[in-house]
User: Which sequence fits this backbone?
């Protein structure tokens, strides 16, 4: 395979949104789910972790793919958020099998990020992009407007730009970094416009006489667990803060310009969010609805994204993280029995009709292995910042149980049921989340000090 990463010319892509686009996107997605339900073929069983990984990488980064997706039944649609939540280590050299694998990953990431930036330029900033043939794409918001779409786009761009900064590197990584810098130069103004628009959408929220800024004070906003349909959620607002932070770090936005828009600097904005959501001594999942017992008021998605909201530099921030983590660890209802596999929450949230058919426990009584990996990684962040080993054993237990489940179920699962089985509903037969696998390997190396898999290139 040629190792050069060629930059595609303008292919005349068109993006649409609105009532008609939403109707068509929903129809296409229904066909996708039904096709998966009746046509998904079971493959030959593999059990060795190395064989499973090779198969996953060959599937996730096939040269025939047009966009980086998970392998789930809804994978024919594109989710910008995934580059922040689920694929932050696609280009980690220690997860890459050989130079050919590096080229495939770099090419696919470049194609994916470029398409998302074209959507931003077209002013289509939605949770989901559904391909509709011949360079036509439908932008649609599933359940609510996004809080983390721009975050995902920045994460993909950031990963490209820093591709050549980790050793050992491949030629494709240097080419990918160059392509990323060209993309930032070409689309930087479009990103700046969209991020400032996000800042202008923040709404005042008064609590105890103090005025805060939230992205979802009056209506829900989408994040990685968007179908919970709650307002005033920690995770959505943490996503917005991280979007602002990364835009400043990448040089897309000047912090003073953002400060004028927000009426406060980024440090104060983050401090306000911690004070508001952490006023009870732990991070509440949502301020919406009646006050609940602590263990029912927290959710696993508070761990956020890699190098995101939690930096653990401040003692009070570490205390809030530890208190929230300890609630989750100590509560049996948060775990698949006899494992370190943690569920999203202790109960099911409000369900819409579609989830009663397709995915009734999707955001509540099910385990997302990728959230567990991020939980382990935040635990390691805490231990490093505090110079203590409070959580390393738990982090290792999480990763060990994910490995066991991967080998048991024949691949890295998107979801696992609360009984520890493959996640299955009538319309959702279960999926192997191929492209989430590298992140697991990256955090495994951090937790154990040695890689789980070694490659001889």
Assistant:
């Amino acid at each position: 395979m040629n190792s050069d990463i060629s930059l595609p010319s303008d292919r005349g892509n068109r993006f649409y949104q609105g009532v008609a686009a939403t109707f068509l996107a929903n129809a296409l997605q229904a066909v996708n789910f039904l096709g998966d339900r009746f046509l998904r073929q079971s493959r030959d069983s593999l059990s060795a972790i190395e064989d499973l990984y090779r198969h996953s990488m060959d599937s996730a980064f096939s040269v025939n793919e047009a966009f980086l997706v998970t392998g789930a039944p809804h994978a024919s649609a594109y989710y910008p958020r995934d580059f922040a939540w689920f694929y932050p280590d696609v280009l980690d050299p220690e997860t890459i099998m050989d130079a050919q694998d590096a080229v495939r990953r770099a090419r696919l990431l470049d194609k994916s990020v470029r398409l998302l930036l074209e959507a931003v330029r077209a002013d289509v900033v939605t949770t989901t992009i559904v391909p509709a043939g011949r360079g036509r794409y439908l932008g649609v918001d599933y359940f609510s407007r996004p809080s983390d779409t721009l975050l995902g786009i920045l994460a993909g761009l950031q990963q490209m730009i820093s591709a050549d900064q980790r050793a050992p590197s491949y030629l494709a990584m240097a080419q990918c970094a160059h392509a990323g810098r060209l993309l930032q130069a070409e689309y930087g103004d479009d990103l700046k416009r969209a991020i400032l628009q996000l800042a202008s959408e923040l709404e005042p929220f008064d609590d105890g006489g103090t005025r805060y800024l939230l992205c979802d004070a009056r209506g829900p906003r989408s994040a990685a667990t968007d179908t919970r349909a709650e307002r005033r959620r920690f995770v959505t607002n943490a996503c917005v803060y991280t979007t602002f932070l990364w835009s400043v770090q990448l040089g897309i936005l000047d912090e003073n310009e953002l400060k004028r828009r927000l009426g406060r600097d980024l440090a104060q904005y983050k401090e306000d969010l911690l004070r508001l959501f952490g006023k009870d001594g732990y991070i509440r999942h949502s301020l919406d609805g009646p006050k609940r017992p602590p263990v029912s008021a927290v959710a696993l998605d508070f761990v956020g994204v890699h190098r995101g909201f939690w930096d653990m530099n401040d003692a009070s921030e570490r205390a809030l993280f530890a208190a929230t983590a300890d609630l989750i660890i100590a509560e049996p209802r948060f775990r698949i029995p006899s494992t370190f596999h943690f569920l999203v929450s202790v109960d099911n949230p409000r369900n819409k009709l579609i989830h009663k058919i397709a995915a009734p426990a999707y955001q509540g009584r099910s385990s997302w292995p990728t959230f567990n990996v991020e939980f382990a990684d935040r635990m390691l962040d805490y231990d490093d910042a505090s110079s203590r080993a409070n959580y390393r054993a738990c982090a290792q237990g999480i990763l060990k149980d994910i490995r066991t489940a991967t080998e048991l179920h024949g691949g890295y699962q998107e979801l696992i049921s609360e009984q520890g089985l493959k996640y299955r509903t009538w319309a959702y037969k279960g999926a192997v989340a191929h492209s989430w696998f590298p992140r697991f390997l990256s955090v495994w190396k951090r937790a154990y000090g040695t890689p789980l898999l070694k490659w001889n290139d």
Observations:
- Strands lie at 14-16, 128-131, 136-140, 203-207, 210-214, 366-367, 416-417.
- Residues 312 and 318 are 5 Å apart (CA to CA).
- The mean pLDDT is 90.
- Residues 171-200 form the longest helix (30 residues).
